[in-house]
Specification:
By secondary structure, the chain is mainly alpha-helical. Helices cover about 85% and strands about 0% of the residues. Helix 1 packs antiparallel against helix 2. The protein is built from three helices and no strands.
Length: about 90
């Protein structure tokens, strides 16, 4: 199932890149056009945002972050379990 999701993200990234390459020659970035150049700049930035989001998912940055957070959670759980196991012994000795 993960392969299908990655393929879908790869396809969408290629589609966004193709749209960007197709539209780039037609967009105007000259300073005299005002709103036209603002629209072109915003559109290009949005396209880069979409491409970057799909690339972020394809590179697996989320998976690495999830694994790191799981390791931290496991270490905290082990600390709490150690602390909980020591508390009954302290109350018995008092």
């Amino acid at each position: 199932m993960k392969k299908k999701g990655k393929f879908k993200n790869f396809l969408y990234m290629l589609l966004a890149l193709g749209m960007l390459l197709y539209a780039l020659p037609n967009l105007s970035f000259s300073t005299g056009n005002g709103w036209v150049s603002v629209f072109g700049l915003v559109w290009v930035m949005f396209a880069f945002l979409v491409i970057g989001a799909h690339l972020h998912f394809l590179l697996g940055v989320d998976e690495e972050k999830k694994k790191a957070l799981d390791r931290i959670r496991a270490a905290k759980l082990a600390q709490w379990q150690l602390k909980w196991s020591e508390e009954p012994q302290k109350s018995k000795s008092v």
